[in-house]
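This part of the workshop introduces the protein records we will be handling. Getting from the letters to the C-alpha cells is the skill we practise here. The record below serves as our worked example for the rest of this section.

…
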Amino acid sequence: MKPAVFLDTNILIDFLAKREEYLPAANVLSLGKEGKLVLYMTNLTLANTMYILRKQLGHEVLIATMRSLCSFVHIAPSTESETIIAFNTPNPDFKDALQYASAMAVKVDCILTRNEKHFRYAEIPVMDCKAFLQTIKN
C-alpha cells in the first residue's frame, strides 16, 4: 500500500517559492504525481498558500499551479467534525489543530512540515521532507 502523507502549508510554499527546502518538497510532490505516494492537503492550505504568494507569483500563475496540484494532491476534509476535534486538541494554534484534525480524518501515515513543533501533540509521525524521503528510501 502506498504511504499517505499530509502536506502542511509550508511545504507547498517551499516548493512554489523555491525556498531553501525546495528540492525535498519537489521530490515529495513528484512521487505523488507519479502515484507512488497518496498526498493530502486542505482547502486552508490552498487559501493560505495563495494569500502568501499572491504578490510574488501573481493570481493567474497561482490558480493554474493550484489546479495542477489538485490533480494529484487530494483535499482532506475540513468540516464541522474536524473543527470540533480541533477545538478539543491541546494545540494552541487553531490553524494547525485544524490541519491535524483533517490529516487524521483521512488516516495519513505522517505529516510533512518544516514546523514540527506545531504538531507536538500529534499521534502520528511528523517530519520534514528530507527525513521522510530518507525513511522511504530505506
